[in-house]
Amino acid sequence: MTRKTVRIAMNGVTGRMGYRQHLVRSILALREQGGLDLGDGTVLWPEPVLLGRREHALREIAERHGLEHVSTDLDAVLADPDVDVYFDSQVTSAREESLGKAIAAGKHVYTEKPTATGLAGALELARLARDRGVRHGVVQDKIFLPGLRKLKRLVDAGFFGRVLSVRGEFGYWVFEGDWQPAQRPSWNYRAEDGGGIVVDMFPHWEYVLHELFGRVTSVQALATTHIPQRWDEHGKPYDATADDAAYGIFEIEGGAIAQINSSWAVRVHRDELVEFQVDGTHGSAVAGLRHCRAQHRGTTPKPVWNPDLPATEVFRDQWQEVPDNAEFDNGFKTQWELFLRHVHAGTPYHWDLLAGARGVQLAELGLRSSAEGRRIDVPEVAL
């Protein structure tokens, strides 16, 4: 085996997602398994360069995991010819400029979403990457989760017949921060810092719907701020200027309708924090992060509405668990492996900056729909 080192500048690893999912559970997990075997006698060895603004926090992470390379100088890291890939999980407002610099420096780029604060910026990044000839990818982790992979298996097998509708419920109660610490950073609730649940979650819903059912052709959304005041990491109150809940209806190419509720102000009465129910002419399924249950039309019971009598059926027991039939690794790690194979072996990869731009577009149009109180068509994006 030939071991080839790939140096990855990781910007934003002091944040929750950048640290836990991308550094620890993806890049460091790859190192723990001995690297990424490309299958041709080559093993890729990821060598992270921790990048950010707070040197003391970066050094603490580096010491905790036995890593060597730390920097607070983005330009210097991008000028280093030994750095192959730039990864970005910063706050949204800082991402577009940094990605542009990395592309201009000739680095392959992999980034959290949304890729920019608006569609024009997202498309410009995709054009820059195309013209510069660098490989590029956008994190689309939900489709690599076990529950949605099993749901995709049902779609590909024709289980649903004609898909009629998709109903999604996502969210949980994020504490305000006064009497219990909030589970999310305060910038998420300030529009001026790039916060808001539409900007955060509509890009997810775009690629989930696009990958499983087809292109989104229209959006009608209502975004609101249910909790107008929160408390930040220092215990200081602040005005929540960004939306913390959004209720969206999406038309899908082919005729299916998706309705997805997203909220950081809802208490969970579901099996998982996100669930999608898909109903088709031949069957239905409910998928979450890990589980997927299905009901075929041949085994569908015949409920009768009678409000005068208590229900005697346990409806959840009438569904069948979709088996794993495979071992499912961490979804973030799985996509990292695909991207690194794409960078170094040229394997096909379509979760790129153009795909990321579709998510930015849907968020932008969702906010516009809410502001104008109307349904808005979603045109196809192209470079």
Please tag this protein with its features.
globular; 26% strand; nine-stranded mixed β-sheet; alpha/beta; 18 strands; seven-stranded mixed β-sheet; 383 residues
What would you say this structure looks like, in words?
The protein is globular, with a radius of gyration of 22 Å. It has 383 residues and is α/β, with parallel strands linked by helices. Strands 17-16-15-14-8-13-12-9-18 form a 9-stranded mixed β-sheet. Strands 1, 2, 3, 4, 5, 6 and 7 form a 7-stranded mixed β-sheet that branches. The chain has a two-stranded antiparallel sheet with strand order 10-11. It is built from 9 helices and 18 strands. The two termini are 40 Å apart. Helix 4 packs parallel to helix 5 and helix 5 runs antiparallel to helix 9. Helix content is 32%, strand content 26%.
